[in-house]
Amino acid sequence: MRLLFCPIKKVSIPSKVQKIGKNAFYGCSGLKDLTVKTKKLTSKTVGKGAFKKLNKKAKIKVPKSKLKLYAKIT
Question: What are the extents of the domains in the chain?
Answer without folding.
Answer: 1-63
